[in-house]
Amino acid sequence: QVQLVESGGGLVQAGGSLRLSCAASGRTVSQYAMGWFRQAPGKEREFVAAISWSGGTTYVDSAKGRFTISRDNAKNTVYLQMNSLDPEDTAVYYCAAKVFFGKVVTARSPSEYGYWGQGTQVTVSS
After folding, report:
1. How far apart are the first and last CA of the chain?
2. For 12-43, what is each residue's pLDDT tens digit?
3. Among the residues of 10-125, which ranges form H helices?
């Protein structure tokens, strides 16, 4: 079992930056692939980025070049640095984890992740 707690959300103007953090407890996250998802009002939860235990990263096309996912296994924490934010990025952002020992995470469906945080709100004003 692993528990995930997100932080770092908030209100930012378009073009601004935020860094989200996901602190894990219960088990070391080095055994898990970690992902970030987001859900806007009235929309389905969608994949944003994922990182393997070894640091291999995967991004949704809209996040490439703007967002960076990283992890610090010693701190049991995963980060999502978000730059050049757009009002379309407004959503609740969720951290998720799944047991995975490969180098590149291919799982992009929420159903493939077994552990979730409570979410943190990101609002980008125009």
Report:
1. 40
2. 999 999 999 999 988 776 788 999 999 999 99
3. none
